[in-house]
Each structure stands twice: as structure tokens, then as C-alpha cells.
Write a structure and sequence with these properties.
Elements (H helix, E strand, L loop, with lengths): L2 E13 L4 E13 L3 E6 L5 H8 L7 E10 L2 E2 L5 H7 L4 E4 L3 H4 L6 H12 L5 H14 L5 H4 L9 H13 L5 E5 L7 H18 L2 E6 L2 H7 L2 E6 L2 E6 L2 H6 L4 H8 L38 H5 L4 E5 L2 E4 L10
Parallel strand pairs: 3-8, 3-9, 6-7, 7-8
Antiparallel strand pairs: 1-2, 1-4, 4-5, 9-10, 10-12, 11-12
Helix pairs in contact: 4-5, 4-7, 5-7
């Protein structure tokens, strides 16, 4: 499969009047066509900041300190304003959480989707744009789309409003779709329909999708690959979700799995729960050193490598893959 999207060692910090908050600390990920990747992280792990950084939409006081994002070898951070406008919504689309807060309350949903479509297809007439809107609303299973294009967001249920956002994200057939906790707050049935739709589009179009979520169950059911995010970076990654579930190597991952029902093998907690979502980031050593129950002197003195412990399975821990070492 073609590697077309690369996130390389991105560091982001927020310069506030009181302190400097390090939100991303070397976030990296490679995306191939056909990929459906789940990134799992607790609240405060940096998921939403990562999404904003990937599309170069971070605003002050946040700033990208170092790293790069490459689309087919070209830096997203060096794109012009015009190139970024084509890139966002055309090449890559984001499905955010909280549909009601993301849609204009006084503008018909059909017009809102049509605006996104025409922004990337200026040659299309208003009539043709609305025909495309009806088509995409049918795709996301909104009943009676010819009538519903005239409805305001307040006339939709939470699940239906979320489908409108998905339609908006898919209308230009992007090569990469990023869902930022897009199923949070939806009932189980609607959640499954939304994820089935994303999965189906990836299969049919040979595109790719990244699901940022706190729900490991969603990832286990829908994703092919999985990354575990902690303190602004991926600390464990596996090309097989089942492979990670059966052989988790990082103490933080094993702690997550210890509280997850249906995991094929039992795990014990090895990392303390965060006292707060604001996490202290040490200048050297392991990111998890202040919370890991198995922390050793080397964990505080040296930053562990992100190493391959089995084919396609990587972890950032000094003792990953060394049974009985800790």
C-alpha cells in the first residue's frame, strides 16, 4: 500500500502567561492507503491538539515547536494559504464531536454542505451542488433528504446532526478522514452506523481514516491498526489490533487493558490514574515515569527508544519485550 501521509515528530506547546504547557511531545504516525487506524488516549493526552496540528489549524497561544506533516512528500506546514484551503476539506477532512455546536444554527444543513462542496468545486452550479448534497445525505442514511436539506440543525436529533457532519466531511471524497471522538454521546446503534459508514468508505475508495477516541472497544471492533497515546505522543503501536490486545508491551497500555472488558488475556494495572488531566512532562526520561508503578532509575535518566519488539509492534519502554525484566 502507498504511504501518502506522514506525521513526523511533532512537538506543540501552549505559551500561557503562567506557564508553558507541552501538549504534543513527538507525535508521529505513518498513514497508508486503506488504513483504518485507531488512536486511543485518555482525556488530556493530546488527541484534539494532534488533529489541529495535522491540518495546520493550531491557533495561539498554541504553536508548533518542531516536526512536520507530509502529504505525498510535501510539507503541510509550508503550504500557502490557497494550498491549505484546497488541502482542508479536499484532501483531508475532520469529523469533530459535538455536532450541534459545529453547525450554523440559522443556516439550512443543505446549504452548509453545499458551501463546503462548492468551495472545492467552484465550477459547479447551485443546482448541481444541491444534487450532490442529496446524494451524500442518502449515503449517510438521512431519510427524505430532498426535504431535510431545507431543515435547520435544531430540527435534527443528535445522531442525525452527527451524520450531517459526516456528510460534510465526505462530500469532497477526501483521501484521509480524521474522526475526533466523533461518536461520543451517540447511542450504540447510531455509533455503529457511523463507524460502519467510515469503514465502508475506506474499503470502497481506497482512502484512509484515523479514529481518535478514548473507547478501546470501538478500535477493537473497527480498526486494523492501533496506537496508544499518552502525554502527547504514541507510546505503543501495532499493525494488528488483536496483536496488541494479546501482547501489550507498555505498562500504560496494559493498565488500559486491565479495565477493558472482553480482552483475550488478563492484565494488571501498572500505572497510577492521573491526579489531573494536566500532566507534568519531564525534560528527560520516560513520559510515564511519574505514574508508572514499575519505574526504575533508568526510566528517569534516559528516554526510551520507540523500538520494534515484534514485527509491526512498537513500544517506547526500556523493558518492553524483555519478559521478567521489571
Amino acid at each position: 500500500m502507498e504511504l501518502f501521509f506522514e506525521i513526523k515528530d511533532v512537538h506543540v506547546q501552549f505559551d500561557t502567561s503562567k506557564e508553558i504547557v507541552k501538549a504534543l511531545n513527538g507525535f508521529s504516525l505513518n498513514v497508508y492507503r486503506g488504513d483504518l487506524i485507531g488512536i486511543v488516549g485518555e482525556s488530556g493526552s493530546g488527541k484534539s491538539v494532534a488533529v489541529s496540528s495535522v491540518i495546520n489549524l493550531l491557533r495561539p497561544p498554541g504553536r508548533i515547536v518542531s516536526g512536520d506533516v507530509l502529504y505525498k512528500g510535501k510539507s503541510v506546514y509550508n503550504m500557502s494559504k490557497v494550498e491549505l484551503e484546497r488541502f482542508r476539506g479536499g484532501v483531508i477532512s475532520v469529523i469533530p464531536a459535538g455536532a450541534r455546536s459545529m453547525l450554523h444554527p440559522m443556516l439550512a444543513v443543505g446549504r452548509q454542505i453545499a458551501n463546503v462542496y462548492q468551495a472545492h468545486n467552484p465550477q459547479v452550479s447551485a443546482k448541481e451542488a444541491m444534487e450532490k448534497v442529496v446524494e451524500i445525505l442518502e449515503l449517510v442514511q438521512i431519510p427524505d433528504p430532498h426535504r431535510r436539506i431545507k431543515a435547520l440543525p435544531g430540527e435534527f436529533s443528535g445522531g442525525m446532526a452527527q451524520r450531517v457532519l459526516i456528510a460534510m466531511a465526505l462530500v469532497n471524497t477526501p483521501e484521509l478522514v480524521i474522526a475526533d471522538d466523533a461518536t461520543t454521546g451517540l447511542d450504540v446503534t447510531v455509533q455503529a452506523q457511523v463507524l460502519d459508514l467510515i469503514q465502508d468508505r475506506v474499503k470502497k475508495l481506497g482512502s484512509a481514516a484515523i479514529l481518535f477516541t478514548h473507547d478501546l472497544g470501538i478500535v477493537a471492533q473497527y480498526c486494523r491498526k492501533v496506537g496508544i497515546m499518552f502525554a502527547g505522543r504514541i507510546i505503543e503501536y501495532c499493525d494488528s489490533v488483536d496483536g496488541l490486545l494479546r501482547a501489550a508491551a507498555h505498562p500504560y497500555t496494559r493498565t488500559l487493558l486491565s479495565g477493558t472488558p472482553g480482552v483475550p488475556i488478563p492484565y494488571e494495572p501498572e500505572v497510577n490514574a492521573a491526579a489531573t488531566s494536566r500532566q507534568a512532562i519531564s525534560e528527560k526520561g520516560c513520559l510515564a515515569q511519574e505514574r508508572c508503578l514499575r519505574c526504575q532509575p533508568v526510566c528517569r535518566a534516559e528516554t526510551p527508544d520507540f523500538k520494534e519488539i515484534m514485527p509491526g509492534h512498537f513500544a517506547q519502554c526500556h523493558f518492553a519485550g524483555r519478559d521478567g525484566a521489571i
